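Lab meeting, item 3. Inverse folding demo.
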C-alpha cells in the first residue's frame, strides 16, 4: 500500500478487484517471484472467463522461487527451510542449501527413471522433509505431482493415480498414527497393482522398517534413487507459466474424485500473496498448518511459506497424541510464529481446559489462522484469548481445492469474531440470491465474477465436468457452493456448504447456525446438524452431539438442547431428534462429514469415504440414541 500510495485497505481491495492486472503484476514484482522470460500479458480471457490464463508468454518454475532463489543467496542458504517432528518425537530439519541438494538429487533420480515434462508422479507421503523435496523435484523436472492423502486405502490411492496417469509413485515404508503402525508401502503396493502405468515406486524410510517387500526392477529406496544422479545441481527447467504444477483431487459424494489442475505461475503467485499478506509470513517466521499433502493446505503451506524464504514446520502424527497438549508443546519447542488449524480441532481441544495451553510458552506466536469450517463464537474467542493471549489476530480464511482463498481478513484491519473479513485481494467475490442478484444482511450463495490466478485450469481430462460443476448455474459466474453473508458492518461470514443446507417447511437453514447454538451449551463439545426426509415438512432437523466429560445423556438434556435451538432460531426450527454420540465422522483435516451422517441415518450408501479419519465413527453414528 505504501509503495503504491494507497492508504486504506478498502481502497486496495477495490483496486485489486477493479484492476486485477495491475494488482497481480505489482505483487509479482513486490514478492520477487522470478520469471526467466518476462510475461507479455498479465491476463488473457480470449477463450472466455472459464478458461482464463495468466502471465502469458512468461516462463518460470515455482521451485526456483521457493528453493533455488534462497539456497543461492548468502543470507539464505543456511536458514532453515523445513523443520519436522514425528509423532514418536524424532526431530529433523533442512536448510535451504540442503533442501536444494536433496531436491536436485531426487530430480536427477526421477529423470534417470524416465520421468520428464508432463509426466505425472503420485506423492503418497506424510508431511516430511522428503515430501517437500519431492514436490519441488517434480516441479523442477516439469513433471506434475499428484498429492495423495497419507491415510487413504489402496483403492482410493489407485483411483487418483489412474486418473492422473501416474508413471511413478513416491511413498513411505510406513508412518504412525496414535502410536499404531500405518503400513503405507503395503497400501502403495496394492494401489500400484491396480495402476498399470506405474513403472517406479520410490520408498522413503520414514520408520526404517526392515520387513518391507521391494519389487525388483520397480521399487527403489530413496537412497537408491538419488544414487542414480551425477551428484551435481539439477538445471531447473524454465516452463510456460501455464504449465501444470499439480493435480489436487477433491472427494465427491458420488462418482470419481475431481482432479483440479493448478499451474506453476498462477498457483505460486496467488498462494504467495495469501501467505504473505493474509498470514503476514516473512523471513524469520516458522509457519505450521496442521495438514496433510492431500489437503490443499499442504501445497499451500509448502509453496506459500518457501516463497517468502520462511520455515515450513511439518508434523507427522495425531495432534492430541500422546496427550491433548501435543500441539501446544510443539508450538513451544519449535517457536512457531504462525499457526493454522481448523475450528473443529479447536473445539475438540478446548474441553481439556486452559491449563494445558497457558502452561506452555506460546509467546512466539504472532498470527493465528484457521480454515475448513465456519466458527462459532465460543471456540473462536478461546482460540483468540487463550491460545493467542489476546494479542494475535485470527486470520480465518475460506477458499477451496480449486481456487486458493476467496475470503480473508488481514492483520492490518479490525477483525470481528468468526468473521472472514472480506474478499481476498484480487478476487471479485459476491453473495447472491437464486437469481444471482447481490444480497446483504441475509444468507446467499458465494460466487466469483472474474478470474483469479489460482483458479483451477479445469478438471483433469474432463472439461465438461468442470464447466458443469462451476459455471453452469449462472453464465460467466463461478458458483462455489458455500453459503455466506455480509452484515451491516461489511463483515463477511460463512454458513456452511449449500449442499448441506436443511430445508424446513420451505425455510432454508445452514447446519452451522444450529451447531453454533448447540455448542454454546456447557454440556456439548461438538455438534452436527443434518436434514432428514419428512413427509410433512420436506425435511426434519436431526442433531448429533458429543457431550463433555461428566455430562449425562438423558431426555432432560435432550429436551433442553432442543428448546435452546427453538428459542434461538425460532420454534419452526426445533430439532425433530437430538442424538448423543461419542464421536463425529471427520476427515483428517478435521471437517465434519455431514453427508456421511445423513447417509448412515437413512441406511444409504455414504459415497466417497476415502478421507474419513476414523471408520469407527460411522458405527458410533449408527448407534447414536
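The presenter then showed the designed sequence:
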Amino acid at each position: 500500500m505504501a509503495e503504491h500510495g494507497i492508504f486504506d485497505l478498502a481502497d486496495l481491495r477495490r483496486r485489486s478487484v477493479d484492476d486485477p492486472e495491475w494488482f497481480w503484476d505489482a505483487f509479482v514484482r513486490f514478492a520477487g517471484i522470478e520469471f526467466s522470460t518476462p510475461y507479455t500479458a498479465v491476463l488473457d480471457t480470449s477463450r472466455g472467463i472459464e478458461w482464463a490464463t495468466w502471465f502469458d508468454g512468461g516462463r518460470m518454475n515455482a521451485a526456483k522461487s521457493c528453493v533455488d532463489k534462497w539456497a543461492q543467496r548468502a543470507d539464505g542458504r543456511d536458514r532453515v527451510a523445513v523443520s519436522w517432528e514425528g509423532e514418536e518425537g524424532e526431530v529433523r530439519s533442512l536448510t535451504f542449501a540442503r533442501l536444494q541438494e536433496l531436491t536436485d538429487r531426487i530430480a536427477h533420480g526421477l529423470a534417470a527413471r524416465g520421468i520428464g515434462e508432463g509426466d505425472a508422479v503420485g506423492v503418497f507421503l506424510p508431511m516430511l522433509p522428503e515430501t517437500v523435496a519431492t514436490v519441488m523435484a517434480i516441479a523442477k523436472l516439469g513433471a506434475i505431482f499428484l498429492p495423495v492423502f497419507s491415510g487413504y486405502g489402496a483403492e482410493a490411492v489407485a483411483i487418483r493415480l489412474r486418473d492422473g496417469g501416474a508413471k511413478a509413485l513416491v511413498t513411505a515404508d510406513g508412518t504412525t498414527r496414535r502410536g499404531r503402525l500405518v503400513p503405507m508401502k503395503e497400501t502403495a503396493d496394492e494401489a500400484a497393482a491396480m495402476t498399470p502405468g506405474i513403472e517406479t515406486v520410490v520408498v522413503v524410510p520414514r520408520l526404517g522398517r526392515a520387513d518391507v517387500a521391494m519389487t525388483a526392477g520397480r521399487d527403489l529406496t530413496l537412497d537408491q534413487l538419488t544414487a542414480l544422479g551425477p551428484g551435481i545441481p539439477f538445471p531447473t527447467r524454465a516452463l510456460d507459466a501455464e504449465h501444470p504444477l499439480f493435480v489436487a483431487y477433491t472427494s465427491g459424494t458420488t462418482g470419481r474424485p475431481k482432479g483440479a489442475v493448478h499451474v506453476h505461475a498462477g498457483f505460486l503467485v496467488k498462494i504467495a500473496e495469501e501467505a504473505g499478506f493474509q498470514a503476514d509470513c516473512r523471513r524469520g517466521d516458522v509457519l505450521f498448518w496442521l495438514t496433510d499433502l492431500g489437503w490443499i493446505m499442504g501445497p499451500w503451506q509448502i509453496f506459500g511459506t518457501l516463497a517468502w524464504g520462511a520455515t515450513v514446520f511439518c508434523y507427522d502424527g495425531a495432534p492430541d497424541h500422546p496427550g491433548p497438549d501435543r500441539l501446544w508443546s510443539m508450538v513451544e519447542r519449535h517457536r512457531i510464529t504462525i499457526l493454522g488449524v481448523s475450528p473443529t480441532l479447536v473445539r475438540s481441544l478446548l474441553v481439556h481446559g486452559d491449563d494445558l495451553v497457558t502452561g506452555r510458552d506460546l509467546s512466539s506466536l504472532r498470527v493465528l489462522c484457521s480454515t475448513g469450517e465456519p466458527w462459532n463464537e465460543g471456540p473462536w474467542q478461546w482460540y483468540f484469548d487463550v491460545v493467542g493471549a489476546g494479542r494475535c489476530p485470527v486470520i480465518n480464511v475460506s477458499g477451496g481445492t480449486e481456487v486458493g482463498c476467496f475470503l480473508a481478513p488481514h492483520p492490518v484491519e479490525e477483525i470481528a469474531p468468526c468473521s472472514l473479513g472480506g474478499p481476498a485481494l484480487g478476487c471479485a467475490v459476491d453473495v447472491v440470491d437464486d437469481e444471482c442478484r447481490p444480497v446483504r444482511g441475509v444468507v446467499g450463495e458465494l460466487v466469483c465474477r472474474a478470474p483469479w490466478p489460482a483458479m483451477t485450469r479445469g478438471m483433469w481430462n474432463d472439461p465438461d465436468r468442470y464447466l458443469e460443476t462451476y459455471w453452469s448455474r449462472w453464465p460467466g459466474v463461478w458458483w462455489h457452493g458455500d453459503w455466506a453473508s455480509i452484515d451491516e458492518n461489511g463483515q463477511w461470514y460463512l454458513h456452511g456448504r449449500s449442499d448441506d443446507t436443511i430445508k424446513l417447511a420451505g425455510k432454508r437453514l445452514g447446519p452451522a447456525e444450529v451447531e453454533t447454538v448447540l455448542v454454546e451449551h456447557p454440556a456439548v463439545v461438538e455438534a452436527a446438524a443434518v436434514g432428514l426426509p419428512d413427509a410433512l415438512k420436506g425435511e426434519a432437523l436431526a442433531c448429533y452431539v458429543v457431550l463433555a466429560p461428566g455430562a449425562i445423556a438423558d431426555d432432560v438434556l435432550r429436551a433442553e438442547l432442543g428448546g435452546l435451538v427453538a428459542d434461538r432460531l425460532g420454534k419452526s426450527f426445533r430439532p425433530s431428534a437430538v442424538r448423543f454420540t461419542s464421536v463425529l465422522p471427520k476427515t483428517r483435516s478435521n471437517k465434519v462429514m455431514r453427508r456421511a451422517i445423513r447417509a448412515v441415518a437413512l441406511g444409504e450408501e455414504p459415497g466417497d469415504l476415502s478421507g474419513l479419519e476414523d471408520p469407527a465413527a460411522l458405527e458410533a453414528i449408527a448407534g447414536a440414541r
